[in-house]
Design brief:
The protein is α/β, with parallel strands linked by helices. The chain contains 12 helices and 14 strands. It has helices spanning 25-39, 44-51, 55-68, 133-151, 189-197, 206-218, 256-264, 281-291, 304-316, 320-344, 358-372, 395-409; strands at 71-73, 77-78, 85-86, 89-91, 97-103, 107-114, 119-126, 158-165, 201-205, 226-232, 234-241, 244-245, 348-352, 385-388. Helix 7 (256-264) crosses helix 10, helix 8 crosses helix 9 and helix 10 (320-344) crosses helix 11 (358-372). The two termini are 33 Å apart.
Length: 424
């Protein structure tokens, strides 16, 4: 058995094959950790079968990982076929932690997360519309420090800090032309936070972070290629391809609004794709609903988020204008999803994010599912599943923490444009 020639190789089973060569020891450790993570609980024999490693190699590596405290053994079982006892292993959830930060123009969310994706401590802070970049960094650092302290996790188990932000970003973690918060443009947030927190920091687009979190938390259910449609400040996408996040050359892969505009044939005055209002549903849904005759009756719906939620609720309660607006928004998003399916040849779309409200979930799933199974060129070759995210509201924060685990434990061999290691 030889190692894959790149970190994007796909092998049978929802895990990766290992190599018995001594100089690939660290790779093989990562292969075994990934196999255990996907399975949840697994025997040594099954690890050997799935990875192609000899049982001697598996036992030697497991011995090290058990001594390090990354794994624990479950109660001994008896194998039915041979009558020999076996002791399955699993990841020890509190062996490692990461901090996930989601920076939205209106809300800061900080979560301390363990290896199973469980939130140990969560803090949220409302952000002022005129908050300056340096003040944002100071606030984030203070909130992270407080969350770590209150959580009482062993700081030795803290692997790093992941940050999820709206795009576009630079590959070095600098915020670029954020459409809804110009005061943060050019902010070198990764470098500044790393200086203040004294922990390694990774920065991802929110859609990419959510996709990584879905892959990590989803285990075997998400051990294949998929696109994550992230409904938040706009609609973005995160792409899991060949077992890892696809970031693109500059970490900006997945700009979904452009794709939806191309599918819908919408052009601006200069001949480029016109960013469609439907791809910013929190802002556009109430406006579109009003155009259909919707009248807001909730006196408490005084800001954008509340107005959006009110329309979602009205649609669920049977208001026809609200329903038409939701269907229109879902239809545009569905066309963008068709573009993803045609481009990537995938059979799974995952929906989530803070604007993915349960009241409109059925309409979104129905419209997108119908489109991605009706319009792609190769529609006869596959059935595309459209499923809800396992991460729910905190998709970006948990996903941001998962970027640290993904970085630390995902098997890689050689260099790749997709490989990203924690800064030292």
């Amino acid at each position: 058995m030889v190692a894959p020639d790149s970190d994007s190789a796909v092998l049978d089973e929802p895990t990766r094959s290992g190599a018995n060569q001594y100089d690939l020891g660290s790779f093989n450790e990562a292969v075994i950790i990934e196999t255990i993570r996907v399975a949840g609980i697994i025997s040594r024999t099954e690890i050997s079968r799935r990875t192609g490693l000899t049982q001697q190699s598996v036992s030697r590596i497991l011995r090290v990982l058990l001594q390090q405290g990354l794994l624990v053994e479950e109660a001994q079982e008896r194998a039915e076929r041979l009558g020999k006892p076996r002791t399955p292993v699993r990841l020890r959830s509190n062996a490692a932690h990461a901090v996930g930060i989601h920076i939205d123009p209106e809300l800061l969310t900080v979560a301390v997360v363990d290896l199973d994706g469980t939130i140990v401590r969560r803090e949220t802070v409302d952000l002022a519309a005129d908050l300056e970049g340096q003040r944002l960094v100071d606030l984030v650092a203070a909130t992270v420090t407080a969350a770590i302290s209150i959580s009482q996790v062993d700081t030795a188990s803290l692997l790093g800090v992941g940050v999820a932000v709206p795009g576009p970003i630079n590959a070095d973690g600098t915020l670029l032309d954020l459409p809804l918060q110009p005061a943060w443009r050019g902010l070198e947030i990764r470098q500044l936070l790393q200086q203040k927190l004294n922990h390694p920091v990774l920065v991802e687009k929110d859609g990419s972070a959510a996709a990584i979190g879905e892959r990590w938390i989803g285990r075997s259910a998400r051990a294949r290629d998929f696109a994550y449609l992230y409904l938040g400040t706009g609609v973005g996408s995160g792409l899991i391809l060949n077992g890892s996040i696809y970031r693109g050359l500059t970490a900006n892969a997945g700009e979904f609004g452009q794709l939806a505009a191309l599918r819908m044939g919408e052009w601006d005055g200069e001949g480029g794709p016109r960013m469609m209002a439907e791809c910013n549903p929190t802002a556009s849904l109430p406006v579109i609903a009003a155009g259909f005759g919707y009248v807001e009756t909730d006196a408490s719906a005084t800001d954008e988020a509340k107005r959006y939620k009110a329309v979602c609720k009205a649609a669920a309660d049977g208001d026809q204008a609200a329903r038409k607006a939701v269907t229109q928004v879902a239809g545009v998003i569905a066309q963008g999803a068709v573009g993803l399916v045609d481009l990537l040849d995938i059979d799974l779309i995952v929906l989530g994010g803070p604007a993915y409200e349960k009241e409109i979930a059925a309409t979104l799933i129905s419209e997108i599912s119908s489109a991605v199974n009706s319009f792609p060129i190769a529609k006869g070759t596959r059935t595309v599943a459209v499923e809800e995210s396992m991460l729910q509201t905190d998709a970006a924060a948990v996903g941001a923490a998962s970027t640290i685990f993904h970085d630390a434990f995902t098997p890689r061999v050689g260099g790749s444009s997709q490989a990203r290691r924690l800064p030292k």
